[in-house]
């Protein structure tokens, strides 16, 4: 070990961040999951390796290495920014490390209705009911119970 290497390190603070889903009406702040001693320079990139740049009122990388995506209207949606893979690097005298890719995806708040598909069956036979969830929200909504006249029939 060299004298200048003593006390230097790079490490992941949280390398389990794999996906960040956020509401377009709220925005999101994503800290770089890496750090170091001495303080590391933190940078964000697209998964393609391209540097990201600040877009006023849309995307900003703070001096502390935090990536911020601001709230936006549906008309301002840009898949290059709001639905993409990012990664962060940390670099200091100990070297350079790269976080795993982090999937960043914006979702829109929109009204939706969940309904039960109509079924017909003769008395004494089995009827199978299906809960219909609009495809635009399907991956964010799950059925937790079935009710009849506000009484839970399936826990």
Strand content bin: 35-45%
Helix content: under 10%
Spell out the CATH superfamily of one domain: Immunoglobulins
Rg of Cα set: 23 Å
- Please tally the helical runs, counting DSSP H or I stretches of 4 or more residues: 1
The CATH first-level class of one domain comes to Mainly Beta
Q: Kindly report the CATH topology of one domain.
A: Immunoglobulin-like
CATH architectural arrangement of one domain: Sandwich
First-to-last CA distance: 61 Å
The largest pleated sheet is described as: 5 strands, mixed
Shape annotation: elongated
Number of strands: 14
Order of helices and strands: EEEEEEEHEEEEEEE
Description:
The model has no long low-confidence stretch (mean pLDDT 87). The protein has a domain at 9-107: Immunoglobulins (Immunoglobulin-like, Sandwich). A hairpin with a 2-residue loop joins strand 13 and strand 14 (151-154). The protein is elongated, with a radius of gyration of 23 Å. It is built from one helix and 14 strands. The protein has one helix at 79-82, and strands at 9-12, 19-23, 28-30, 34-37, 41-46, 59-61, 67-69, 83-92, 95-98, 102-107, 115-116, 131-132, 146-148, 151-154. The protein is an all-beta fold and 155 residues long. The strands form five sheets. Strands 2, 5, 8, 9 and 10 form a five-stranded mixed beta sheet that branches. A three-stranded antiparallel beta sheet has the order 3-7-6, with no helix packed on it. A two-stranded antiparallel ribbon has the order 1-4.
């Amino acid at each position: 070990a060299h004298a200048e290497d003593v006390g230097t390190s790079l490490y992941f603070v949280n390398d389990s961040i794999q996906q960040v889903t956020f509401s377009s009406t709220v925005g999101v702040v994503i800290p770089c999951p890496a750090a170091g001693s001495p303080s590391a320079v933190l940078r964000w990139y697209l998964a393609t390796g391209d540097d990201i740049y600040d877009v006023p009122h849309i995307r900003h990388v703070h001096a502390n290495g935090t990536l911020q995506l601001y709230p936006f209207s549906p008309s301002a949606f840009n898949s290059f920014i709001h639905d993409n893979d990012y990664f962060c690097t940390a670099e200091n005298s100990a070297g350079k490390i790269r976080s795993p890719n982090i999937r960043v995806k914006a979702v829109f708040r929109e009204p939706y209705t969940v309904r039960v598909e109509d079924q017909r069956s003769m008395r004494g036979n089995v009827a199978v009911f299906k809960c219909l969830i609009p495809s635009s929200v399907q991956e964010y909504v799950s059925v937790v119970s079935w009710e009849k006249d506000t009484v839970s029939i399936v826990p």
